């Protein structure tokens, strides 16, 4: 991969996750400003996860069929930018719900196709272990940058400028896609049943179960961590610092990823992440002193960054060539689509029925399930 290609892919991750850094923390505030209630806002925000159930795999299949991942990314980025502009004309709840669903169904293509294109380019010159983390960390930097920048802008100008920030970052994303270059993909007809053949492998099914359980557990963090810290008496500024610390930890791991993956196999790394996940969620739920909460956030380097890098490398070994985009999309669908959606719903029920602490007890239990699933994989994959 040339230096210009590395810059382009790094910018892609930066801009896409800058968009997520705008939507995840601030879209709910914008919807509240429009007069929507808590349940209406919850349904609107759930579209970020629900659209990951079918969207990524559908786009992945199209990408493998056309053998043109970057072309589809350009199309989707442009269509998403045009769709986002509708926000200036929406007034009622149902149009906003449809808008969120359509917009994020389109955008659900970007990460699996971007990951597949990046991995393909890096494996072509055998530089995945050394360079993937240093490209992917730009996503984390983009997320942090937008959270901090948007927070300052909203403090100064108000949440009303939310749509303009969204348009700006999506326009830049569209421009970026025209600088992306991927090595030529050998075009061949899709073979009926080839994906099913890979999924028949027990180790692949155990891996997908572990990914589902890991993100199922992390849904407790993504949905309720801020509210949990608020209940403990932390200010909004302190809560922001906790989130920033977690993202900084993942940036550091991504930068030094090559040293870890050069020494340990992907499955060994995954086993470690599940053990750390259990410790992390137990600390958050049952030993919530400031020092231990800080330690738990540093563990995000393992439970997200190390888990993501090792998973991406494993997926490449099973879903190579014409299956690559569908493999990345399947991981997104199973883990973030089903796992994230169901985990968030279960966490909400437990929060109401059993209390906040048990939400993170559930997350720790999910990490145990993920670890047991990986343990069942065949020795040859370790």
Classification by helices and strands = mainly alpha
CATH class of the largest domain: Mainly Alpha
What is the N-to-C succession of helices and strands?
Answer: HHHHHHHHHHHHHHHH
Radius of gyration: 20 Å
What is the count of helical runs? 16
Strand content: under 5%
N-end to C-end Cα span? 28 Å
Uncertain runs are none
Question: Any chance you could write out the topology, listing elements then pairs?
Answer:
Layout: H1 3-33, H2 38-66, H3 69-84, H4 93-107, H5 110-124, H6 128-157, H7 162-177, H8 194-199, H9 202-231, H10 236-255, H11 257-263, H12 266-286, H13 290-298, H14 300-318, H15 324-353, H16 356-375
Q: Could you characterize the architecture of this molecule?
A:
The chain contains 16 helices and no strands. The two termini are 28 Å apart. The protein is mainly alpha-helical and 382 residues long. It is globular, with a radius of gyration of 20 Å. It has helices at residues 3-33, 38-66, 69-84, 93-107, 110-124, 128-157, 162-177, 194-199, 202-231, 236-255, 257-263, 266-286, 290-298, 300-318, 324-353, 356-375. Helix 9 packs antiparallel against helix 16 (356-375). The protein has two domains: 1-184, Up-down Bundle (Growth Hormone, Chain: A), CATH 1.20.1250; 193-382, Growth Hormone, Chain: A (Up-down Bundle).
